[in-house]
What does this fold into?
Amino acid sequence: MSVIAILGAGPGMGLAIAKIFGAHGYRVALLSRDPAKQEPLVSELAGHGIISAAFRADARDHGSVASGLAAVNERLGAIDVLEFSPADRRRPLPSATALTHENVRVWIDLYVHGAVAAVNQVLPDMLAKGSGTILFTTSASSVYPVARFGAAGAAMAWLRNWAHALHAAVAPRGVQVGHVAIGALRPGALSDAIAPLYWDLHTHRHAVEKVFLLDVADWLPEQTQPSRLVPATKGLSPR
It folds into this structure.
């Protein structure tokens, strides 16, 4: 049975992604700083007939990322899909005019070093097998910079850049890399509409990126004409 590991799992997007992959027969590993908080999700997934388990991994603690993913491999089996979507609402969001070494570093540690640690843990096995998928999640500020997300957006833009470069490097060897950029202030409320994009990137392996925008005016200048936006479901308003 295939396994998806969701690093940064929560009751919104993480749970919705787990349900999408679980419905296709995947076992689900939910990784977060506090695995005890994932137990209600494990119970909910079990109600849908989905096998899952919670594990500890903090994206800013490279050792815990490695040990958490190793524990997934030992308990559920080899990881076929890694989804990386950490979030930390405790951290300030300095604007583009208020950056310091320290407030930039915390976001680089989360989105850059955390992603590198996670990928380094799973990629060698995927390349050896000639199969696997790595999916990254960021906000839409990684694609369309927004001044108020100066530090976080820049770190996520690095991750997006790496996703494209990594895809180019490993796709010929059977490993898919994809990126989902979400432009919505409360993406958890839209998780059921957004989660299918991850399955689409996993199964349609020619695509690298999906961009989902809800409040277009919050992310794009009036004259911008985005080319990769995902059609919204009824009631949403992407361009």
